[in-house]
Write a structure and sequence with these properties.
By secondary structure, the protein is of the alpha+beta class. Helix content is 55%, strand content 10%. The protein has 9 helices and 4 strands; from the N terminus they run βαβαββααααααα. A 4-stranded mixed β-sheet has the order 2-1-3-4, with helices on one face. It is globular, with a radius of gyration of 17 Å. The two termini are 23 Å apart.
Amino acid sequence: MTLKIYGIGPSRAVRPIWTALELGVPFELVSTPYAGGATRTPEFLAINPNGHIPAVVDERAEGAVTVWESMACALYIARVHGQADGQSIAPANAREEAEALRWSFWTVTELEKDALTVLMHRMAMPEDQRKPELAEQAESRLKVPLAVLEKHLQAQHAQGETYLAANRFTVADVCVASVVGWVRPAAALLAQYPAVSAWVHACVERAAHKQARGMK
């Protein structure tokens, strides 16, 4: 059986790559940048007709399984290739599974668009193309979901749990931190949410995340 991940680390593909690395799951990274037309070839469109990375193809005894959408890719790898042993990043029980699902979907709907705007207009884009007013508007909107996340992490700490779903790093943290990390260029904003700030720093400083980000 072979697990292939299409994409590059400096993209949303970091989510399944990071997940696989944390689990120690062997995989082949098929280098597929989002620029330059690699995602528009007939071969790639046969895998993901949307023309976006990442995509995962899992060659299994029962046949190939194809997954796209980055959060789905990460959750799939954790669910299918992880061990529900309470030690790895895979959910160990129904509660952890629910936390991974709800926070991953929440991140896409409540955080991702504005977090990406902050990243692009505070750091990633060439300086002469940045629009600070767009970043400011996005930061203002982010105060609501960041407050929700802050409250959850405080509640987790109160019951002796350090991370989103458990007292250990799980795939829920992979999915959410991969987006909250985009907000770090807005240091003054993030400083208003100390639990979020400490948590995301711990997540992105993990060796597997750094390795995933560097994979091309």
